[in-house]
Design goal:
About 85% of the residues lie in helices and about 0% in strands. With about 100 residues, it is mostly helical. The protein has two domains: about 40 residues; about 50 residues. Helix 3 runs antiparallel to helix 4. The longest helix has about 35 residues. It is rod-shaped. It starts with a helix and ends with a helix. The mean pLDDT is about 75.
């Protein structure tokens, strides 16, 4: 009689553990999908950009990007597409002068 009760209790415990294992496996699969999604390059950049603007490093990066962008736009407006060696030299001098002014 006692062995029958032990077998029933053991069977119930095994079923409980199998059910728990199934639930944990599903949770692990869901977490894997979430982690995989967060590690995609687009999402990494997106999450970084959310955090960066509030830090000093973010301000420095933003200032650098703005400086490079304005320098590039000004260069295109002033010199256009460089065709001659003289234009290349003038372009380099212009870039050097604009970069020197922005510490």
């Amino acid at each position: 009689m006692k062995t029958v009760e032990l077998r029933i209790a053991l069977k119930e415990r095994i079923e409980l553990l199998e059910s728990k294992q199934t639930q944990e496996l599903e949770a692990l699969k869901q977490q894997f999908v979430i982690t995989e999604e967060s590690l995609k390059p687009y999402n990494l950049v997106k999450s970084t950009l959310k955090e960066v603007p509030f830090s000093t490093i973010g301000k420095e990066i933003l200032n650098g990007v703005i400086g490079l962008s304005t320098s590039y736009i000004a260069q295109k407006k002033v010199f256009g597409v460089p065709l001659y060696p003289l234009q290349n030299m003038l372009k380099s001098a212009f870039q050097f002068s604009t970069n020197k002014r922005n510490p």
